[in-house]
Design a protein that fits this description.
about 600 residues, single chain, 23 helices
């Protein structure tokens, strides 16, 4: 960096006005210290050397020079001395790319295999791969422009919503390229120009589009990169009924891409244009992935950085010397005290919620729940840790703070359902739907819990029927056994009367089979009525009373958890409703 690029400035120059008053105050204090006391006017001149003590002038002078130096350092630090340093354009929190994607019916043309829309999706995936440390955002446009995802590092959400972009989810037909570029410019407005770009993925070049592109390219300049997907010849756009789309005049719609016109606009304003390729050559030409801001011999972009905090290190020993003796030693000893092993240095500068979020990203939900102060975050961490009762208690705090939040009631109901409190969960889902009738997740979970409760009732009824049937069968068997026993006793009596020897030598009838049958019937009855009692009367069955029923109940509980976690995910329908709502809001805002 040359000396001509070095610049010194002050972030808060108004503080420099305090320099002169501070120096004047120090001078007045010094003069007051040097002024002779009133005893000199009362005592004779011959007795003054004997009665008055004279101090060396160098000692108080050094003291006040030290005070003036400390005040000057403090004032300069408050003024914020700043000098130019190179801007790190590759920093993850600075580098950003906003993809503006054409979702008009022209993207369904098949002149680029498999079609233009699929090729555009592949290129956005390539951007995510090449710009791994960049923030990415996505804007889609047809007759209206909409922000699909804000600038973030969340690739999973971007991939999920990117696959749902189709022309039929857009609320209005047409082409609002100008509104889309305006929305993208707002997203990167606060970022450094050298590290933020807009990638326009375009597949048509109508005159009104070229006019809007010309206007925005003049303002964006190098920040705009244009990726053309399509050919000059074009191709018909297939329709859902097996034919081809037609324009207002009844002719087959054949969207064409004028690459020469797009390249000319890019050249005039310093932007970049490239036709789509099957490799990464197009994106390497258009975007700055891991490259320095120095291009073509240009000077790197500089920025002023406040460095006044370093002057505070010089103030510490001066402040210690100006105070009591020994304070400097105390500061030195304090600097030698080791930090606690469990507390990292970076954690000192983070709020508890930030520390909890970091632990949650590391898949440590139990520790994260202990850090979170926000009950919503704490409830989510406890839910991830499968501590559902504690999660329900945390979400109850969320509801207490904001009773009208439908998401709070939804999360509360889900935690209650996972904890086994199904009736309370239904009530929470009802509260969520009362506040937001379109809450699909709450409606889905409510239907799952209702189906589960209905299954429990049917199972209880079946178990009760089986128990009654088992008792009837047991009573019939007992009567048959008693009848058989009576016949056996009669036969034995008859044989005993006919053969006294057999009567005296033969053993008596063993009652054990009858008793064992009764115990078996009782056990069967208890096994059959146990689940019914637990479900109907609210009693708790012992775990070992029926292992088969316990295993079945555990399996059904696991199935319920799977149902609750399997919330239907339809990003296309989500985007359709979101875009329609935003379009209606824009129309209402434009009306006088």
């Amino acid at each position: 960096m040359g000396s001509e690029s070095f610049a010194l400035a002050f972030a808060r120059p108004a503080w420099l006005l305090a320099v002169l008053p501070a120096l004047a105050l120090c001078w007045l204090l010094y003069q007051r210290a040097q002024r002779r006391s009133g005893w000199e006017a009362l005592l004779p001149a011959a007795m003054q050397p004997l009665l008055l003590e004279r101090h060396s002038a160098s000692r108080p002078r050094a003291r006040y020079l030290l005070l003036a130096g400390a005040w000057l350092l403090a004032i300069i630090a408050l003024a914020g001395p700043s000098w130019s340093v190179p801007l790190d354009t590759n920093s993850p929190n600075q580098a950003a790319v906003v993809v503006v994607m054409d979702v008009t019916p022209s993207v369904l043309a098949t002149d680029v295999a498999p079609n233009r829309l699929q090729r555009a999706r592949h290129k956005v995936h390539d951007v995510m791969r090449l710009a791994a440390d960049h923030q990415l955002g996505l804007v889609a446009y047809a007759g209206s422009a909409h922000r699909v995802t804000p600038l973030s590092h969340d690739r999973a959400t971007l991939i999920n919503l990117l696959g749902a972009l189709e022309p039929d989810i857009m609320p209005v037909e047409g082409n609002s390229l100008g509104a889309a570029l305006e929305l993208a410019r707002d997203m990167i407005d606060e970022l450094p120009p050298a590290s933020s770009q807009i990638l326009l993925v375009i597949s048509s070049s109508e005159p009104e589009q070229l006019e809007a592109l010309e206007r925005h390219a003049a303002e964006l300049g190098p920040q705009l990169a244009i990726l053309g997907i399509g050919t000059q010849a074009g191709a018909p756009v297939p329709s859902a009924d097996g034919g081809f789309l037609r324009d207002s005049a009844g002719r087959i719609l054949v969207p064409r891409l004028d690459s020469k016109a797009l390249a000319a606009i890019a050249r005039r304003h310093g932007s970049a244009f490239h036709a789509v390729t099957t490799s990464d050559a197009d994106l390497d030409q258009l975007l700055r992935f891991g490259q320095s801001s120095v291009r073509g011999g240009q000077e790197p972009q500089m920025t002023l950085q406040d460095q006044g905090h370093w002057l505070l290190l010089l103030l510490l020993p001066l402040a210690a010397l100006g105070a009591r003796r020994g304070w400097l030693g105390v500061l030195l000893l304090a600097s030698l005290v080791p930090f606690p092993a469990e507390a990292a240095w970076v954690d000192w500068w983070k709020r508890p919620d930030q520390r909890g979020a970091a632990l949650l990203e590391q898949q440590r939900p139990v520790e994260a729940a202990k850090q979170f102060e926000d009950p919503a975050w704490r409830g989510w961490a406890l839910y991830q840790a499968r501590r559902y009762p504690a999660a329900a208690a945390a979400y109850a705090e969320v509801i207490a703070r904001d009773p009208d939040d439908p998401n709070g009631h939804f999360h509360y109901g889900t935690a209650l359902a996972m904890a086994g409190r199904y009736e309370d969960a239904l009530e929470a889902f009802e509260q969520a739907l009362t506040r937001d009738p379109d809450h699909e997740a709450a409606r889905h979970n409510r239907s799952r819990v209702e189906a589960w409760l209905e299954q429990l009732r049917e199972q209880s009824a079946e178990n009760g029927t089986d128990a009654q049937r088992s008792e009837g069968q047991d009573s019939t068997e007992d009567e048959e056994q008693e009848q058989q026993s009576g016949e056996d006793e009669g036969n034995q009596t008859q044989r005993a009367s006919e053969d006294p020897a057999a009567s005296s030598e033969g053993p008596p009838a063993d009652p054990a089979p009858s008793a064992a049958s009764d115990l078996s019937a009782a056990a069967s009855s208890n096994a059959g009525s146990g689940p019914a009692t637990a479900a109907g009367a609210g009693e708790t069955a012992t775990p070992g009373s029926d292992p088969v029923a316990a295993a079945r109940q555990a399996e059904q509980a696991q199935a319920l958890r799977q149902w609750l976690e399997d919330i239907p995910d339809n990003p296309a329908e989500l985007l359709r409703r979101k875009f329609l709502y935003q379009h209606l809001q824009q129309q209402q805002g434009s009306q006088p």
